[in-house]
Amino acid sequence: MAHEPVDVVIIGAGPAGATIAWSLADTRMKIVCLEQGDWMDPAGYPTTRMDWEMRRFGDFGLSPNSRGREADYPIHDADSPIHVSNFNAVGGSSILYAAHYPRFHPSDFRVKSLDGVAADWPIDYALLEPWYAQNDEIMGVAGLAGDPAYPPKSVPLPPVPLGKVGDTLARGFNSLGWHWWPSDSAIATREHRGRAPCIQLGPCIMGCAQGAKGSADVTYWPLAIRAGVELRTRCRVREITLGPDGLADGVIYYDAEGNEQRQQAGIVILACNGIGTPRLLLNSASSAFPDGLANRSGLVGRNLMFHPYGMVTGLFDDPLEGYKGPTGCCILSQQFYETDAERDFVRGYSFEILRGMTPVSTALWGMSGGRLPWGTDHHAAYAKLFDRTAGMVMICEDLPEPHNRVTLDPDLVDSNGIPAPRIAYTLSENSRRMLDHGVARAREVLQSAGARETFAEAPLAPAGWHLMGTARMGVDPETSVVNEWGRCHDVRNLFIVDGSIFVTAAAVNPTNTIQALSLYIGDRIKQNLSNLFD
Amino acid sequence: MSGSSAHDALPPSVRDSLDALLDCLIPPSRDGRLPGAGALGIGRYVAARLGASAAVLLPGFAALDARARDRGGAKFVDLAPERRSEVVAAYASEDPGFLPGLIFHTYAGYYQEPAVQHALGMEGRPPHPKGYTVGPDDPRLLDPVRARPTLYRKA
Predict the structure, then answer these.
(1) What number is the ipTM of this complex?
(2) Nearest residue in chain A measured CA to CA from B114
(3) How far is it, in rounded angstroms, from Cα A160 to Cα A139?
(4) Residues on chain A touching B132 (C-beta within 8 angstroms)
(5) Chain B residues lying within 8 Å of A374, measured CB to CB
(6) SS3 content of chain B, % helix, strand, coil (to 5)
(7) pLDDT > 90 in chain A, percent
(8) Which of A258, A311, A499, A507 supports an S-S bond with A274, CB 3.0-4.6 Å?
(9) Torsion, CA A60, CA A61, CA A62, CA A65, rounded to 10
(10) Contact call for residues A41 and A299 (beta carbons, < 8 A)
(11) Helices (DSSP H) in A152-311: which residue ranges?
(12) Which residues face A482 on adjacent strands?
């Protein structure tokens, strides 16, 4: 079935797609967004029930391969030490993200110039700064101005409370003389744009039943829909099609009943993030683009970057009330963020402080580590663990390497028969050294804060949350897929606005930068509408 | 299969053995504040999680009974609690696959029970809608950080 042609079709309703949908809505162009998932019902989020903790092993798990949700597509990542964690719904992976929301540093856009590795971005921090600011306001970012790790910036909302965990670890950082600061968090700490304030539920990573977390379904989408954007859910795009003029002319997708549909459009915008976007481009091969759409550079799917995570848990003597407060947003430290020639790796990492473990998590963590026996000693052992843990993660900058890539799996397909992505990824020696450094420094912090024991895991296998680099930005069509404002070099009416266009990964969560880029690209499209394809 | 129906589908003797086993895994606390997992009814949760595969427990319980008779001259459920634990430990060493799944589900079911969370000092309710109160924070903590020079590189 063919639908009436539209001006713009956006593929993917996550943070990137939602943001550019809203950005372009004021043009009054006819805009349709196709999303393979559906709207989420916050009333059904896990924290409304006593069994909420165990749902991370089920329908709110990290991996699309084991979650059992119809909206997900399989990803062959068994050979990677880091496994992909994404979510398919209106709001995309922001449904399950922790809402840790820092910006990139200015140096993150000048990696080659400053440190002699990877490549510089064709844009810089100063160019993105107004879009960061606008995005911070719409998403409702909580934080505290004055962080010496960043250029001056305002923050719309007061920070999430540190709680006993944050207070304890902040004292540990202070005793070492190291940087820390309240996290920038996309969490409404007071009522903001109709969103209720945070009530410290804890597990933001399983959806926010309160609606305080800034996921794209409760921030940009209501605005975009009110402005006239049409959002079609349970629509899975199979391929982007080309017209005789070499421009993209629309998409073919499957609706909820599995029926093939055709949507013609004047502009096609990809917002499927670092795995979904190259997958769709590779699935859109044609005689004009035998190696995948917009892939004359051969770089579609290459340079996949995760953020290698390490985690160190400290065990303390006193209760920390760690089950209260946003689990992923407390304080961060960028003491080891910038390159230091004295260290045995280039670039750096952030520390992000987690809250403590909840009752079931404590028991299962104790069981898996052999710290919680069954039998007569069980209760005494549990009492030494419960509410006495604090976690730190290090989020390491991953450098782009062409052999880390997304291809199409020769056998695996999704429920519509569309070839699934396959991940080839190895952890670099630079990342390994960074993780080792981070684990050692995290132990120092925790011990300085009073931890009697520490436990480390690095890399953290299920932590493939951040998917970047697989259709990177640049001015040279030989070495990049999109130009400095997200337009594909090879197809002038095809844009990409998600993490795949990142040139480098920085060492912070990417969503704020993805959305700032979406606003910037949306603005450039609007500024150039009259001669967009000249 | 619901928790009740999966549990009810087990033979009565196996249900009794399951409860006795769960009380071995998590016995009542010495001060009486925390109940045993079997007495708390976690067997229903465990049976529900195992579903149709709960039948794999049957040979294990038969083996526990056999060892109980060898060691104590009685069925597993009729042994004193400390003797049950000895039997479970002995059998677990012979069949390492018997306990891990049971322990996982027992811990998961037990620690999501309101009565248990009450005893741990929590309110025994889901986080939403009441939430929690956190803070206030000590603003002086940031004084040494504010005094630092900038950390970022200009670029």
Answers:
(1) 0.96
(2) A50
(3) 15
(4) 199-202, 321, 323-325
(5) 24-26, 99, 103
(6) 60, 0, 40
(7) 99
(8) A499
(9) -110
(10) no
(11) 163-176, 220-226, 273-282
(12) A473, A488
